[in-house]
């Protein structure tokens, strides 16, 4: 009797093995292609990549397990964007994550079928990336970097932390929709604050540096560094230049303040990667990008570098200190 029971149990266990094997095979590994506008060694880029992977994990998608994430780092180079977009699409991923509007456009030119979720993108409707914010249409949706109204806030903050300023140079990328829109929003508020604006549209890093040095020859100057691939690529150079020329400067991104910039105000970009992971999960479960609305930021952060303020001889107002989300000693 014991022998018959053992053989029967062995047979039932053996029969179950193919079922378990088939279940494992059924859980297909999903693939995500990520094209970033930063370099592979950029601290911000690495933090964003980690945030995206961690957020996917909360939805049950484990990098290196049931999802494979392939990264390409464009570092603000248009030619790289085109090359890497083609490489990622050729791998036939289940979804693509695009960092920035220029990157999104590069991916769209290669595929109109693979779902694309973008982050850190300004004005996607006027750029032709989506049909509308509420119903994007096509294969693309994602998360706005900010609305242009925030750009006037940069000038207000610069005047608050350095009231003597009457001249402000604005580093922007005029070849992009965002560069034009950002400057227009700053320009609209400048007269009420008694500030004259000077746009700086650098063709390259050397031209940008010459323009800032020329601007700094006169007194009472300040600097606004808008959000663009160019400013991200030249982040360290711009921060060092502002310090050398003793120009109080406001930046669109917290990482500038962390790296030595005076003050920054903008959306919590890490939060965008958490929300992007949610959209990728929903797409994996059958929802269409065309029906997922483009969303605006919900979290903003003000960062002040107190060490830089002291070096510039700036006494940060208590009202500003009280509003800061991050004070860098």
Mean pLDDT score, rounded? 91
Q: Report strand order across the widest sheet.
A: 7-6-8-9-10-11-12
Question: Main sheet?
Answer: 7 strands, mixed
Q: What global shape is seen?
A: elongated
Count the domains. Answer: 2
CATH architecture of the largest domain: 3-Layer(aba) Sandwich
Task: Please describe the topology of this protein.
Layout: H1 2-26, E1 30-36, H2 43-58, E2 67-73, H3 78-90, E3 95-99, H4 101-108, E4 116-121, E5 140-144, H5 149-161, E6 167-171, H6 177-189, E7 196-200, H7 205-215, E8 221-225, H8 229-233, H9 235-244, E9 249-251, H10 254-258, E10 263-267, H11 269-284, E11 300-305, H12 306-311, H13 318-323, E12 326-328
Parallel strand pairs: 1-2, 1-3, 3-4, 4-5, 6-7, 6-8, 8-9, 9-10, 11-12
Antiparallel strand pairs: 10-11
Walkthrough of the structure:
By secondary structure, this protein is α/β, with parallel strands linked by helices. The protein has two domains: 28-144 and 269-298, Response regulator (Rossmann fold, 3-Layer(aba) Sandwich), CATH 3.40.50.2300; 149-267 and 301-328, Rossmann fold, CATH 3.40.50. The protein is built from 13 helices and twelve strands. It has a seven-stranded mixed beta sheet with strand order 7-6-8-9-10-11-12, with helices on both faces. The protein has a five-stranded parallel beta sheet with strand order 2-1-3-4-5, with helices on both faces. Helix 2 (43-58) crosses helix 11 (269-284) and helix 3 crosses helix 4. The N and C termini lie far apart (79 Å).
